[in-house]
Amino acid sequence: MSHIYGYIRVSSRDQNEDRQLLAIQQLSIAQENIFIDKQSGKDFQRPQYKKLVRKLKKDDVLYIKSIDRLGRNYAEILEQWRILTKSKGIDIVVLDMPLLDTRRGKDLMGTFLSDIVLQVLSFVAENERENIRQRQAEGIAAAKARGVRFGRPEKELPDNFEALVQAWEREQLSLSDVLDLCQISQSTFYRRRRDCHRRR
Where are the alpha helices (H) located in the chain, listed in sequence order? Predict the structure, then answer.
């Protein structure tokens, strides 16, 4: 007897899966047959997805909301689609794209059209991921050019830091004394000391 399953993926733990879950639950899929990953779609090394694939048997049906929920890597989406539909013998239904329903058009033309649509959509999904990455890189570069600093804010040093450095250089203070007085690490001390020397 065939079973129906649902697969949901959001990219991070703070993203909400409710929209996908609502669409899947309307299909009356048993709760134990709905698998949710909160993880990037860059590859298929996701715990719930792997668990789902192990459960799938011939003639089962897998529902996903959209093709990019399956993944975002063009080549890997096509490979997973082939494994699921050809090797495992299951059907896949992409709710947002009725043409991607392997239960329909089992003839040569239907399969051909489904494969073309899948390849185009997979390419679009990966292309969008690359565009997002490029926009992020450009945004970071532009922010750095404007003087925006990334990472943790620089620790404030006491006003007498240079005097403490000079005392250490003259061996009037030990390094541990200076670190305690400034409440900084050894690596920060040496880096900020270099900054002082450059300003002199």
Answer: 18-25, 47-55, 67-70, 74-82, 108-145, 161-169, 175-182, 186-199
Amino acid at 162: E
Structural tokens at position 169: 């250089």
Convert the pLDDT of each residue in 57-70 to its tens digit. Answer: 999 999 999 888 88
114 is catalytic: no
Distance in angstroms (rounded) separating the CA atoms of residues 38 and 15:
8
Q: How far apart are the first and last CA of the chain?
A: 81
Q: How many helices (H) and strands (E) does the chain have?
A: 8, 4
Q: What values do phi and psi take at 63, rounded to 5?
A: -105, 135
| pTM beyond cutoff 0.85 | no
Q: What region does 58 belong to: left with phi over 0, alpha with psi -120 to 50, or beta? A: beta
Q: Which two tokens stand for residue 32?
A: 């134990």
Q: Where are the domains of the chain?
A: 4-132, 161-199
- Architecture field, domain 4-132: 3-Layer(aba) Sandwich (3.40)
Residue from 11, 87, 122, 176 carrying the catalytic annotation: 11
